[in-house]
């Protein structure tokens, strides 16, 4: 085959070929570069991974050694279930429970003992505080007592000095007092009453006052017609205001009218100040009191009865001396300081409806009570 002569078309083909070859070479170069880079990276990574694996291997070997030791220790502790003695284990468990119970009891006893110690300490502390307070009070009382003793000694010295300067007084005459001999009044004798108040003796003319009160009370009843209904009796609401307005008196007493318990009209005697007989009057035989009153008492018909208030014992003793001189029997009855002579009125006047008859009437054959001992 004959060769053709070169032409312009052939030049263009070579250029294209050269361009293609250039491109292929460039691509190959790039592939080579990339390949080299990948190989280097792979080498580096492999090298790095080799180093990490060695460290992990060493760590795992250490862990394996530890586990082997733990397995050895466990093999020493663990017992084969077939080798366990159940009775021995139960006995050991029972002993352990007993030991635990004893220890718990010891702990409880210890706590109780500690609480008791704490309470005792608190009690001792309170007792100590109380004792300290008592000591302080005792000290204060002792100081007060010393001051009082010093004051008393000083007052005693003053009184002794005053006593030394006081002239001696004559000793008063002895008072003769008879030994008490309580006994009833002689049969048939009447009581002559005397009130000893304000260290004076007041003769009581009670019978006259009772009669006057009876007359005045019956006058009220008749004027108001209060006795027309025996079942209803005397109305105390109508009777009392008029009765308690009444007054009476004599030379020795003011007489007050009053109703007791809305049932019984009574009188109350208040001594008139300065109207009684004094000790000097009793000591004078010709005094009016002795001449007009005491000399009129018949020793065979009367006996004296003295009601003595706390402030009048001396005048009572003087009066009893006069009675003894005249041979008149007498007795006395001490009273409190605000006592007043009171008595009923005659006539059997009772306010309100009459009381029901007694369920058990008195036995007429019953022995009579013994008379009161009014003589001493």
TrEMBL record:
Residues 352-370 have a biased composition (Pro residues). It comes from Roseimaritima ulvae. The keyword Coiled coil applies. It comes from the Bacteria. Residues 347-376 are annotated as: Disordered. Residues 43-148 form a coiled coil. Keywords: Coiled coil. This is Uncharacterized protein. The keyword Coiled coil applies.
């Amino acid at each position: 085959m004959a060769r053709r002569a070169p032409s312009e078309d052939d030049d263009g083909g070579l250029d294209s070929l050269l361009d293609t070859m250039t491109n292929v070479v460039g691509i190959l170069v790039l592939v080579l570069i990339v390949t080299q880079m990948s190989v280097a990276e792979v080498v580096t990574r492999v090298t790095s991974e080799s180093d990490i694996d060695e460290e992990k291997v060493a760590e795992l070997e250490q862990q394996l050694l530890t586990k082997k030791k733990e397995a050895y220790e466990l093999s020493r502790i663990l017992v084969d279930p077939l080798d366990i003695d159940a009775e021995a284990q139960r006995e050991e468990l029972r002993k352990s429970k007993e030991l635990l119970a004893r220890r718990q009891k010891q702990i409880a006893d210890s706590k109780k003992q500690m609480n008791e110690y704490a309470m005792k300490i608190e009690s001792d502390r309170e007792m100590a505080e109380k004792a300290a307070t008592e000591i302080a009070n005792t000290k204060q009382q002792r100081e007060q007592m010393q001051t009082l003793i010093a004051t008393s000694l000083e007052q005693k010295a003053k009184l002794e000095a005053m006593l030394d300067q006081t002239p001696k007084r004559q000793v008063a005459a002895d008072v003769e007092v008879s030994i008490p001999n309580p006994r009833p009044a002689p049969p048939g004798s009447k009581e002559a009453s005397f009130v000893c108040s304000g260290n004076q003796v007041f003769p009581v003319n009670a019978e006259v006052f009772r009669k006057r009160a009876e007359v005045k009370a019956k006058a009220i009843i008749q004027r108001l017609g209060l006795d027309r209904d025996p079942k209803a009796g005397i109305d105390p609401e109508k009777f009392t205001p008029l009765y308690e307005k009444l007054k009476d008196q004599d030379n020795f007493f003011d007489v007050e009218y009053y109703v007791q318990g809305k049932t019984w009209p009574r009188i109350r005697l208040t001594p008139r100040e300065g109207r009684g007989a004094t000790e000097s009057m009793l000591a004078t035989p010709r005094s009016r009191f002795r001449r007009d009153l005491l000399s009129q008492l018949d020793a065979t018909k009367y006996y004296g009865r003295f009601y003595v208030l706390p402030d009048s014992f001396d005048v009572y003793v003087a009066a009893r001396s006069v009675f003894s001189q005249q041979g008149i029997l007498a007795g006395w009855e001490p009273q409190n300081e605000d006592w007043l002579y009171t008595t009923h009125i005659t006539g059997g006047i009772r306010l309100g409806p009459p009381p029901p008859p007694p369920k058990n009437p008195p036995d007429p054959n019953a022995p009579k009570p013994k008379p009161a001992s009014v003589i001493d």
